[in-house]
Amino acid sequence: MSAGETGGSQVKSAVRTVELLEFFAGRPGMHSLADVQTAVGYPKSSLYMLLRTLVELGWVETDATGTRYGIGVRALLVGTSYIDGDEVVAAARPTLDRLSDDTTETIHLARLDGTNVVYLATRQSEHYLRPFTRVGRRLPAHSTSLGKALLATYSDEQVRTLLPKALDRLTEHTITDRERLIAELAQIRERGYATDREENTLGLSCFGIAIPYRTPARDAISCSVPVARLTPAHEQLIRDALVDARDRLTLATRHL
To answer: Any idea what the Cα angle at residue 106 is, between residues 219 and 72, rounded to 5°?
Structure first.
């Protein structure tokens, strides 16, 4: 085998390793070899060897039988390192704390990653509310106020390039047509914030606003509140608090 062939094989192995880790990251729990093979399409023999290597290194774990696989603890260490070292997350902490105090609702900081948003930080509501999101979770941008706030900082043509014509439906309220979403993005640009009214989770409304320390924006903050508790006065308080938080974060991130 030539040096070029060896290099190509190593690159292929690296790609497969990343794809495997992303598979496990997106599907919590344990999975059989057959299930993993069906999802990724690698030859079963090479897949098994790759899994065994990742298990030995701690990136993948197995159950007591040694026949089912899931994400390993080393992935958590890397993810935590990313959060701990992120300048925006660090700069946002005081603002997120204040926004949580001002609204008494659940607060999120998220980043656009392709067609999804990834949650970087969260503050739980003072009221009882099942935690629908967690740090590291990915959700479709088109169904969240965070995602829509960020997509609104892109041009219509950029959005058309990024998103497919038909969008996944998460609830009966989800916008599933790209052109309809683009029309809403125009409204978001005018009013300065985005809304998600039970489009991602039934019974929950969210308000999101982008942080303009770069263009197009990469990060946004949101406030989530159960529909049953959302009065017009409370909604106005949330919108005002989000605008204030955006202005504070714009100052805090101006050096980034």
So the answer is: 70
Contact 87, 256 (CB under 8 A): yes
Query: Using CA atoms, how far apart are residues 140 and 131, in angstroms rounded to an integer?
Result: 17
Is the pLDDT score of 22 beyond 90?
A: no
Q: What is the mean pLDDT of residues 161-190?
A: 97
Say whether 44 sits in a helix, a strand or coil: helix
Q: What is the pTM of this model?
A: 0.78
Query: What pLDDT, on a 0 to 100 scale, did the predictor assign at position 227?
Result: 94
Q: Other CB atoms closer than 10 Å to residue 244's CB: what's the count?
A: 14
25-45: per-residue pLDDT in tens? 878 889 999 989 999 889 888
Angle at 82 between CA 20 and CA 96, to 5 degrees: 125
Residue-wise pLDDT for 58-72, tens only, equals 899 999 888 899 988
Burial of 132 (0-12, 13-18, 19+ CB in 10 A): middle
Identify the CA nearest to 74 among candidates 59, 55, 62, 53: 59
Q: Give the pairing of strands 219-226 and 106-113.
A: antiparallel
DSSP state letter for 177:
B
For residue 214, what is the DSSP state? S
Q: Give me the sheet containing 68-71, strands edge to edge.
A: 31-32, 68-71, 60-62
- List the structure tokens of 98: 């204040």
Of these ranges, 11-15, 40-44, 156-160, the one predicted with the greatest mean pLDDT is 156-160
Sheet strands (E) in the chain: 31-32, 60-62, 68-71, 106-113, 116-123, 138-140, 194-197, 204-211, 219-226
3-class DSSP assignment, residue 219? strand
Q: Three-state SS for 228? A: helix
